Amino acid sequence: MSETTGPPSGRPALAVTVGDPVGIGPEITVRTLAEVGTSASARGVVVADPAVLRRAAGVCGLDVRIRALDSWDLPEEADGVIDCFDLGELGETELPWGAVDKRAGAAAVRAIEVATRAAMDRHVDGIVTGPINKEAIWAAGSEHLGHTEMLGALTGVTRQNTMFVVRGKKIFFATRHVSLRTALDQTNADQQAAAIREALTALRVFGHDEPRLAVAAINPHGGENGAFGTEEIDHLLPGVERVRDSGADVVGPVPADSVFHQLLQDRYDGVLSQYHDQGHIAAKTFDFDGTISVTVGLPILRTSVDHGTAFDIAGTGVADPGTMRSAFLHGCEFSHFADRIRAEYGA
Fold it and tell me: Please, which residues have CB within 8 angstroms of residue 227's CB and are 6 or more apart in sequence?
């Protein structure tokens, strides 16, 4: 395919990366694609060295054929076949399972680069990413903190955010990988208004034409009018009012001990959580395997597992593929919004 051609005919296509090739990523990927087969609304093409997938299929006891591809001119699908865009990074080299290795880190980085380029060039409708090991990618020379930062650099985007999806409900984050103390220091009315607008935009892009958003409070009982803290009065409420005055359906701050329950009761389409664990605990306690991550703000669709490489069980064939299955199936569902994503975020 040339860089000007659209995605393959027939079902949408998703480029799937396994993450670190000596973690559980290859196992949960082959299990997912073997299980889903040709029944999903999009097809998956793994970006990896074929030998990595063959080894994973072996430890999982799967009777599948790994079909190596050297272009995005995709062949007809076949039952019992997992298509693999040959990365050409490791060849037949078998690295030790469950150990930090710069060669594995280099392969993980290269796969992300290839999959992202394929999505930018519209050979595929999005990407689904498996878990990487940060020590391994750093050993390989990457200077990025993780997937999200790498994807931002590859797509030319300086600001991205995370949207958790769990059983159709969305959770956003005003702050992410910082200490709680730093998260509190970063909180102000401008930051709140920006995060609210980003969340509302993402909800519209992903199918909520008239989105309803709740903003979670920080302090117990929403601060009890300043008795338990003034962040709600000083920062959160002014941010909410600023956006609500423009006509948006946004409420809050709502006490965090009830806002996620209300989300499940369908009072809102999404919740803006104030710090990392506030949203993570709610989503993962409700449905750990069903919680997946979508990076919003990128000009391409990206869904992802939200767990690590589990080096302690890698290579044993026992890893649960539930989160990868959810990430892939949500990618299939959201692939229908690929044009909206490109239009909103700039591809």
Answer: none
Nearest to 53 by CA among 84, 88, 19: 84
In a domain, 79, yes or no: yes
pLDDT of 327 > 80? The answer is yes
> What is the mean pLDDT of the segment spanning 129-154?
89
Same domain, 87 and 147: yes
Sign, CA torsion 235/238/240/242:
negative
Residue owning tokens 């338990």: 228
pTM for the full predicted model: 0.88
Residue 288 maps to a domain:
no
Q: Say whether 52 sits in a helix, a strand or coil.
A: helix
Give tens-digit pLDDT for 209-235: 999 999 999 998 987 888 888 888 989
Assigned domain for 194 exists: yes
Per-residue pLDDT, averaged over 191-208, amounts to: 95
* Cβ–Cβ under 8 Å, residues 20 and 108: yes
Q: Provide the β-strand partners of residue 250.
A: 213
Q: Are residues 156 and 303 in the same domain?
A: yes
What count of other Cβ atoms lies within 10 Å of the Cβ of residue 53? 26
What range defines the domain where residue 256 resides?
163-281
Q: What is the per-residue pLDDT across 161-181, written as a single tens digit (0 to 9) for each?
A: 899 999 889 999 999 878 889
Domain count, the chain: 2
